[in-house]
Structure to design on (319 residues):
């Protein structure tokens, strides 16, 4: 009878493990958040404007054409750097966690997760390029938030539930930022910095703490 | 007690087969290597169990090539899904009576 109960438990775990990528590390979220905060701080210091209104439509409108291009280029470079650093650190921690759990990083579930997120993300990226092309740089901050939120929502089917709520939060924040255009940097910092750190910490607390010390355990055996 | 056990499906008596079914009911399809990684079974062992499930009409096999490499994917049939659910229900009932 104990054997049957164990069988049921194993079945449940298999069903979850095979359809969802559960090695997503909370530390990935935290590191992405920290990188985003550093990026925001760099932008804030470089543009030397007050925290709230930097990046607003009005502010950029006051710049001359040269200054505008300079700021444009600087912002795009910083954003790309933040993206690359956040992705690299995020991947590192998740790969590490998967190794610790004795699981493969590249499996059907992770492929589905990546694909589910890639479609909205690439769409959002191209959308932002169009915005920049039309010199609507101030619109890119809310746009990245909204599309990132949609990507998370779409990807959450293939990973832990928390990602779904993070997705809703990002979408809500992005939509709010669309109308409160004066606070772009602030919203962006909350969305990519604060929220990542909050959810990352919560996920670390819930899922990683227990698995972290047990290295090399193979749960499939 | 005997009555409850009557609903236990012979095809799922082995734990490996039950595991295979549980992976396939939540995934649209899964290839051989994916199953192998998840279940930690040997090639021979896994293919024997898969053949048994295929013979029972619970699993559908699709063989194709990606380039030159053969890629065999498996999915459950409606009958397989129904049988699996029934077996699980029986298992649950059985445990409840204890």
């Amino acid at each position: 009878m104990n054997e049957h109960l164990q069988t049921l438990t194993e079945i449940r775990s298999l069903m979850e493990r095979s359809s969802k990528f559960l090695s997503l590390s909370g530390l990935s979220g935290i590191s992405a958040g920290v990188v985003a905060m550093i990026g925001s701080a760099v932008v804030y210091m470089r543009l030397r404007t007050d925290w709230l209104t930097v990046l607003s439509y009005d502010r950029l409108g006051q710049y001359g054409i040269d200054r505008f291009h300079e700021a444009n280029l600087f912002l795009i470079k910083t954003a790309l750097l933040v993206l690359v650093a956040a992705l690299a650190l995020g991947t590192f921690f998740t790969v590490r966690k998967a190794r610790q759990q004795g699981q493969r990083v590249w499996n059907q579930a992770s492929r589905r997760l990546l694909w589910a997120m890639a479609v909205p993300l690439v769409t959002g990226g191209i959308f932002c390029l169009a915005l920049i092309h039309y010199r609507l740089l101030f619109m890119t901050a809310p746009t990245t938030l909204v599309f990132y939120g949609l990507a998370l929502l779409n990807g959450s089917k293939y990973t832990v539930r928390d990602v779904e709520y993070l997705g809703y939060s990002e979408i809500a924040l992005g939509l709010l930022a669309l109308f409160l255009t004066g606070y772009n940097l602030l919203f962006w910092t909350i969305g990519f910095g604060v929220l990542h750190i909050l959810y990352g910490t919560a996920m670390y607390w819930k899922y990683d703490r227990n698995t972290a010390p047990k290295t090399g355990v193979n749960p499939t055996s | 007690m005997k009555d409850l056990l009557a609903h236990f499906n012979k095809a799922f008596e082995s734990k490996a087969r039950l595991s295979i079914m549980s992976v396939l009911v939540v995934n649209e399809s899964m290839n051989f290597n994916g199953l192998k990684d998840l279940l930690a079974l040997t090639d021979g062992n896994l293919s024997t169990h898969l053949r048994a499930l295929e013979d029972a009409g619970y699993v559908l096999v699709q063989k194709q090539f990606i380039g030159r490499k053969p890629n065999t994917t498996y999915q459950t049939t409606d009958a397989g899904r129904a049988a699996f659910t029934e077996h699980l229900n029986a298992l649950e009932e059985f445990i409840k009576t204890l």
